Amino acid sequence: MAAPRSKSEGGTLARSFFGVLLFSLGIFLFYAAGLEAFQTRPLNDIRLGVLAGAGAYLLIHRFIGVGDFFGTFTHELCHTIACVLSGGKPLKFYASQNQGGYAHLTRTNIFVVLAPYFFPVWAVFGLAAFRLLVWVRAAPFILPFTAFFVGMALMHHVLCLLHSCRPHQSDLKKYGLIFSYGFVAFANSIILPHVFLLTMNPEAPWHHFLEKLWRLAAFHAGPLWERLAASIL
User: Fold this and answer.
1) pLDDT in tens, 193-220
2) How far is Cα 166 from Cα 184, in angstroms, rounded to an integer?
């Protein structure tokens, strides 16, 4: 007779299953976001600003480099912001160029631990500034420059994610790699397209694309699963 599973083993299996589910949902949401972004027309100054910013940061990262300090600072800042939003307090904050960094916090949870991998902090700040400028009807020539910053910040987050989302990361191992990857993929599939599309479409309400992407993902999920099953069977 097989030995009964321990509670820790059962919890690990449950988290792994939930992680696979979240990862699958994330794929559908990214697919829906791609469809929505492809249909965004025309390419006005604001939309070109977002794309130009993303391309500019990619070139800077590839040919000039931005150093490790900014990435480390951003990583620890995300932990800290998530802790504060969870009701905790930061006790100590440290970031360096060559020796990494850390944040001593009074509270930790899955959002605090995984925040650097799904929360594009500079892009969110840029989006907030951009929407504020739209709301106060700032001079039109300012908006493309703000959109340019949002594009740079989004690309910064994507490149940091690709660099740091490795199996050896202690943050990812804390809740299990499968669950962490699934959670990160799902959270990014909601936040990144939302920031991108809200900048590309400044007149859209905050919740517009979240609802639209969810409907698109649900609409296309059935046919995609059918094709996948047909290819396997």
Assistant:
1) 889 888 888 877 777 666 766 666 666 5
2) 12
Domain boundaries, the chain: 44-62+110-217
- pLDDT, tens only, 43-82: 788 889 999 999 999 999 988 877 788 889 999 999 999 9
Instruction: Measure the CA–CA gap between 174 and 12, rounded to whole angstroms.
Output: 11
Beta bridge partners of 102: 94
Q: Rounded distance, CA 164 to CA 100, Å? A: 12
Spell out the alpha helix ranges (H) of the chain: 7-38, 45-63, 68-85, 110-118, 121-135, 142-164, 170-174, 177-200, 208-232
Geometric angle at alpha carbon 177, from 173 and 182, rounded to 5°: 130
- What gap in Å lies between CA 15 and CA 18, rounded to an integer? 5
Burial of 212 (0-12, 13-18, 19+ CB in 10 A): middle
Report the pLDDT averaged over residues 111-131.
95
The phi, psi pair for 145, rounded to 5°, reads -70, -40
Can you read off the two tokens belonging to residue 90?
Answer: 């930061």
Least Cα distance to 175 among 48, 15, 9, 24 occurs for 15
